[in-house]
Structures are given as structure tokens and as C-alpha cells.
Design goal:
Blueprint (H helix, E strand, L loop, with lengths): L8 H7 L4 H9 L15 H33 L2 E3 L2 E3 L2 H12 L18 H14 L1 H7 L4 H8 L2 H12 L4 E4 L15 E5 L4 E12 L5 E7 L10 E7 L5 E6 L10 E14 L5 H38 L1 E2 L2 E2 L4 H38 L6 H40 L9 H9 L9 H13 L2 H10 L8 H24 L2 H30 L4 H23 L6 H4 L2
Parallel strand pairs: 3-6
Antiparallel strand pairs: 1-2, 4-5, 5-9, 6-7, 7-9, 8-9, 10-11
């Protein structure tokens, strides 16, 4: 029986990282739940075994149900009639399988019906689901929105809504509007408080809403009359059972066709305030988007895996000039680089997820008791690391997903251009990953401050202190030289104190930092597991070429040449 978890041993490697000991310790609070829930772990080994067993179930469902349904869903698509959405039949079957297996609300506490999983195993599940059908991941993965309710809603709302998510109801986050895409402070959907009924009513239009006919919505709306900026926005919970929202249409998209992207019309839709007024964008959406970006990083890695698998299988099977095309150096080189990019983006994803796990667990504990000084320091450190690595994981992961999907089609040749092969769908599905939840350019905007304040350099220097296998020492020494070039490039640009020049070179500086971080993580993986030996060798050499290219461009760049790039 096929299984997308068991056939990818790299996933188990990342699940068993040494930092998981601390993550599970914080998440399980001394394993207190074992007294109330028969499925709660009794110790660390039991918790890890639980993650492993559940991921095996995810892998089986993905291989046996979701992946076989993917092509049919892509052709059938969801439909909109009378203001409501009906999923493609394969999507409905996928959701039912996940509900029956208890895979909804995986990261939520057991008291609400969840599995209380940390981010790492949950992201592994998202990685696997995305490999099977990236469009379905957009529906299944929106259970992430329950995290926002858990963090910011009151206890009554948590009990009412998170429980429903864990039982299998779907969610959406309604942020974007026709005139407010990336510029969310321009959101104008109106929220009006009714004192007589002690509730809020929402009026306006939302656009590009993934899974827009979901059961439970998180809605960004303007609660403060007369305001025009982010300080007038609040977060609301809308329950589909209350009515007032209709789907005007489903967008006709290039890819991820099984996921209905909707335009919604709110007409006196009853809603509840989530958290405090005026913090909708400033605090709640920022937290929501960080989680969503990590989810897209996982989706990107899953797509990279799917593209690599399809390309490898085809290259082994397809014969030209009397031999399989994998035997031609040009094809073999493409496949090797695809695998290296896949492994590098995956290791960055799970490093980021581990950092998120620690700081979020400590955040949660701080609501129950006062943190010790050591815990506060730990929380602060990992929060900073998570914030700095999230845009790299999303930005680089999505770019690599697109590159791998491109190369997958190239290896298929003319056949890859036809709908007879899965690579055509993977190619279309991958394209959105570098656009939604913040384009790659916006990830650069988020990341550049960690270049200029030295955070990335400090983290890279910390990785340099970690031991590697003797046979990898030469690669590690090359990375040290490359880091010096990166540091020199940063110093050259920041010393000018010219914002336009910094903005112009930001992408190159951020990519250089990402290459170095991923390279060090690859060396760590290869030192512990032979699975990564070839990818580490290939990726460090690839990173070296890219860093030399970027550092050479910056070193020789005449700031007067900026005029040629202005339009």
C-alpha cells in the first residue's frame, strides 16, 4: 500500500531533530493530559511515537485517496450556484477521509478536540498533503486559522469555534478586497456595532478569498468610523450559520483549481469581535500571516517533492538514443539540483518550524504562569529567530517550487506540455506560491531588516560553531569564506546610508543570507544522515556560485547606474 510519509525518509529525519525534546516538553506541560485523555502521551517517546503513527495515517490517505483524486478535481473544479459553493466530488471525498481520521485541528489543544501537535509534525503533514494535491492543502491547511482564535479570542469563542474545527468544519481568512491586496491597511469592509443586539454587522466585498464559503471565517474589517489606516481595523469571527454572506463568483484560476477562490458579498452579516478593537491588522493579521507563510513554505516543499518525483520517474523510464534519459549528464545534473533545492528548502522549513514551536509554547505558558527569566530569554530568542527565518522559508521555498516545477516539465520534454502528465498540473499549482500570502518581493521587504541589523550574520556565525562530519569540513570552510563576502557586501551597501540603493540590492543580500543558512543546515543534515550527502555537496557548490554572482554585482555596482533601472 502506497504511503507518502514512509516513502520519504527525509521527513522522519526532520521529525527526530534533537530540539524536539524541548518542544515536546513545553507543548505537553509535564504530560498532564495523560490523566484526562487516553490518547495523550505519557512521556517523550510516547509523544514521538504518536506523531509518527499519525503521520503514517496522513501518508496513507494522501497516497491512496487525495493524490488519486487530484487530476479529477483539477478538471471538475468547484462550482458556485445561488451564492453557495459545491466542492468537486474528489475534494468532498478528501475532506471526509481527513475528518474520519481525525486530522482536522491537529495543532489545537486536546480540551477542544485537537491532537495538541507541535508545528513540526503538523508542517510535515502539510508537506505530504501538498505533494498529493496542493489545491486540497489550501482547504485542509486553513485549520491554521483556529490558531488565531486560540491565541486571541475569549474562552467562550474558543470552545464554540475551535471544537467545530476539530470536528471537521472548514475555515477561511477574509482579508483581501478589490482595492486592498498587499496593502491591507486599505481594507474598507465596514463593521458596525449594534448596541441593541450587542453584536456587530459587516457590510462590503471581499475578493480572492480561499475557501470563501467556509463554515467559519476570520474577517478583517473597519470598525472605527472615519479612519483610513490600519489602526481602524479589527478582527471578527463570522459564522456561516448566521447567513448574510453570499459567494458572488469563483475565480477562474491557472492552478490550485480544487480550492475555490471566491468573491464574497457581506450584507448585514452578523459577526463577533475577536480580541480587542483596532488590533485587527497591527497584531492579529500579522500573527495570522506568519502562520500562513509557514504553511505556504510547507506547500512549496510538497510541490517541490512532487515535481522531483515526477521528473525522476520519467527520466528513468523515458528512453532516447537507446538509453534512459537519466543517463545523460544534462538531465542527471538537472535532477541533482532539483533534489538539492528540495532538501535545502525542506531543512529551512523545519528549522523555522522548530523555532516557532518553542516561542509559541512559551507564549502559551506565559498565559498560565509567570515565565522564569531563563524562559523569557528563550522565548525572546526563538521569537526573533522565527520571525527572521519565516520570510526566507516562504520566499526561497516558493521560488524553488517554481523552479523545480519548470525543470520537471523540461525533463518531460513535449510530453510535459500535455495534460496527460501530472507535471503540467504541478507547474500550474506551483505558480501561486510565490504570490499569495505575500509575494517574494514582500518577503524580501520583511527580511532585509535582519540583514541590516546583523541577525542573519549572527545566526550564520552560530552555525559555523557547530561540528560537521570530517568529510564535510572542506565545504564548511568554503562557507566561511562566502560569509565574509556576504558581510562585506552588507557593509558596502549599508555604509552608503542610501535607502534607494539598499532597496535595489535587497533581494541579492537576502538571497545570499538564505543560501548560507540553508547550506549550513544541509551540512548538519548530511553529518547526521547519509540521505543528504549528495544534496549537501551539490547545494553548497550551487550556493557558492550564486553568492559569488551577487557579491560581484554589488562589489562592482556603480550607484550612478541606478538611473538605468528606474522606470
Amino acid at each position: 500500500m502506497a504511503n507518502f510519509y514512509l516513502d520519504t525518509p527525509e521527513l522522519r529525519h526532520h521529525l527526530n531533530h534533537p530540539l524536539m525534546k524541548r518542544i515536546v516538553e513545553l507543548k505537553e506541560r509535564g504530560y498532564a493530559d495523560k490523566e484526562s485523555y487516553d490518547y495523550a502521551p505519557v512521556d517523550f517517546e510516547d509523544a514521538m511515537d504518536s506523531y509518527d503513527k499519525v503521520l503514517e495515517i496522513v501518508g496513507e490517505i494522501c497516497a491512496e485517496i487525495i493524490a488519486p483524486n487530484a487530476e479529477g478535481v483539477d478538471h471538475e473544479c468547484p462550482v458556485c450556484a445561488d451564492g453557495r459553493v459545491t466542492y468537486a466530488s474528489g475534494t468532498a471525498a478528501n475532506l471526509e477521509a481527513c475528518r474520519k481520521a481525525g486530522l482536522m485541528g491537529m495543532a489545537m489543544p486536546r480540551r477542544y478536540g485537537g491532537l495538541n501537535f507541535p508545528n513540526v509534525p503538523y508542517m510535515i503533514a502539510a508537506d505530504i498533503v501538498s505533494r498529493s494535491d496542493a489545491g486540497f492543502e489550501n482547504l485542509w491547511g486553513l485549520q491554521d486559522c483556529a490558531e488565531t482564535i486560540y491565541e486571541f479570542a475569549n474562552e467562550d469563542q474558543k470552545k464554540r469555534y475551535i471544537t467545530r474545527v476539530c470536528e471537521g468544519e472548514t475555515m477561511s481568512m477574509d482579508l483581501t478586497e478589490p482595492d486592498a491586496g498587499s496593502d491591507l491597511q486599505s481594507v474598507m469592509l465596514k463593521a458596525t456595532y449594534c448596541e441593541k443586539e450587542d453584536c456587530w454587522y459587516l457590510n462590503g466585498v471581499k475578493r480572492f478569498i480561499t475557501n470563501g464559503d467556509a463554515d467559519i471565517h476570520l474577517v478583517l474589517a473597519r470598525s472605527e468610523e472615519g479612519t483610513r489606516d490600519g489602526r481602524g481595523l479589527s478582527m471578527f469571527i463570522y459564522d456561516k450559520r448566521n447567513g448574510g454572506v453570499t459567494v458572488r463568483r469563483i475565480e477562474n484560476k491557472m492552478g490550485i483549481k480544487g480550492s475555490p477562490t471566491c468573491e464574497l458579498v457581506y450584507k448585514n452579516a452578523k459577526a463577533e469581535l475577536c480580541g480587542d478593537r483596532k488590533l485587527g491588522l497591527i497584531k492579529y493579521v500579522m500573527a495570522l500571516m506568519n502562520g500562513a507563510r509557514l504553511g505556504i513554505a510547507a506547500q512549496s516543499v510538497g510541490l517541490s517533492q512532487a515535481a522531483y518525483n515526477e521528473a525522476l520517474a520519467y527520466a528513468k523510464d523515458r528512453k532516447q538514443f537507446g538509453k534512459a534519459i537519466i543517463e545523460f549528464p544534462a538531465v542527471a545534473e538537472m535532477l541533482s539540483l532539483m533534489k538539492a533545492k528540495l532538501d535545502a528548502s525542506r531543512t529551512l522549513l523545519y528549522e523555522t518550524a522548530r523555532f516557532v514551536d518553542i516561542y509559541k509554547a512559551l507564549d502559551d505558558i506565559s498565559k498560565e504562569r509567570k515565565l522564569t527569566p531563563e524562559e523569557r530569554q528563550e522565548q525572546k530568542r526563538y521569537a526573533k529567530l522565527a520571525d527572521s527565518l519565516t520570510p526566507l522559508a516562504k520566499g526561497m521555498g516558493s521560488e524553488y517550487a517554481n523552479q523545480n516545477a519548470y525543470d520537471c516539465i523540461q525533463i518531460h520534454g513535449g510530453s510535459g506540455f500535455m495534460k496527460d502528465y501530472a507535471c503540467e498540473r504541478i507547474y500550474r499549482d506551483a505558480r501561486i506560491t510565490s504570490i499569495y500570502e505575500g509575494t517574494t518581493q514582500l518577503q524580501v521587504v520583511a527580511a532585509i531588516r535582519y540583514v541590516t541589523n546583523g541577525s542573519y550574520l549572527a545566526q550564520i556565525r552560530e552555525y559555523e560553531t557547530l561540528p560537521v562530519a570530517p568529510e564535510l569540513e572542506g565545504l564548511k570552510n568554503r562557507l566561511t569564506e562566502l560569509t565574509d563576502r556576504y558581510a562585506a557586501a552588507v557593509e558596502q551597501i549599508t555604509a552608503t546610508k542610501e535607502q534607494e540603493l539598499l532597496d535595489f540590492t535587497a533581494r541579492r543580500l537576502v538571497e545570499m543570507a538564505a543560501y548560507l543558512i540553508m547550506s549550513h543546515l544541509m551540512l548538519q543534515d548530511a553529518s547526521k544522515c547519509d540521505l543528504f550527502a549528495e544534496s549537501a555537496q551539490i547545494f553548497v557548490r550551487y550556493a557558492e556560485a550564486e553568492i559569488n554572482k551577487h557579491s560581484g554585482f554589488i562589489r562592482d555596482f556603480d550607484k550612478d547606474a541606478l538611473a538605468y533601472y528606474r522606470k
